UniProtKB/TrEMBL annotation:
Domain of life, per lineage: Bacteria
Cofactor: Mg(2+)
Entry keywords, A to Z: Hydrolase
Keyword Nucleus: no
Organism whose genome encodes this protein: Deinococcus irradiatisoli
Molecular function terms, GO-annotated: hydrolase activity
Keyword Hydrolase: yes
Residues in Nudix hydrolase domain copies: 9-138
SUPFAM superfamilies (UniProt xref): Nudix
InterPro entries: NUDIX_hydrolase-like_dom_sf, NUDIX_hydrolase_dom
Name assigned to this protein: NUDIX hydrolase
PROSITE patterns found in the cross-reference section: NUDIX
Length: 158
């Protein structure tokens, strides 16, 4: 097939680095295989919704926190999960923000939240199968690694 003739579904999502005393807030979700996955608060944007608006909505749903004063950190984009049923062209925004409120997730998929010391964040990430889960793709975590090291770039091709 001519690669120029391919049409890929588009996935747009936004995540927020919420930081408190060199700890990063992660949400714990149960995956389809029963394992616990730690990820950044945030998620998919609705049709016509900006990445910033999606970040605010998703963080509220997954953590109970209200975020304001979003600051853009990084954009990740490119083809993901090629050859799987979830193949897509992804655009992921990463932000920082001020936050208020108490941790009280309303998302039924979130089984907990955790403030994780910067130096422990990447040890909680599970890489590998199933290949349909983009959060387990190491490329998705490079911007977070860079952010934690104070070396975030504004653009990351996937």
């Amino acid at each position: 097939m001519n690669p120029m003739s391919r049409t890929l579904p588009i996935k747009r999502a936004a995540h927020v680095y919420l930081v408190n005393d060199r700890h990063l807030l992660l949400v714990a979700e149960r995956m389809d295989d029963g394992s616990i996955f730690y990820g950044l608060p945030g998620g998919k944007a609705h049709l016509g919704e900006s990445l910033a608006a999606a970040a605010v909505r998703q963080v509220r749903h997954e953590t109970g926190l209200s975020v304001t004063d979003l600051q853009f950190v990084s954009l990740l984009e490119g083809e993901m999960l090629t050859g799987t049923r979830n193949e897509c062209y992804a655009t992921f925004g990463r932000f920082t923000a001020h936050f208020t409120g108490d941790l009280a997730p309303t998302d039924p998929e979130v089984v907990g939240t955790r403030w994780v010391p910067f130096d422990e964040v990447l040890s909680l990430v599970k890489f590998g199968p199933p290949p349909e889960v983009e959060e387990r793709n190491p490329l998705i975590w490079i911007p977070t690694r860079d952010f934690l090291n104070g070396q975030a770039r504004t653009y990351y091709p996937i």
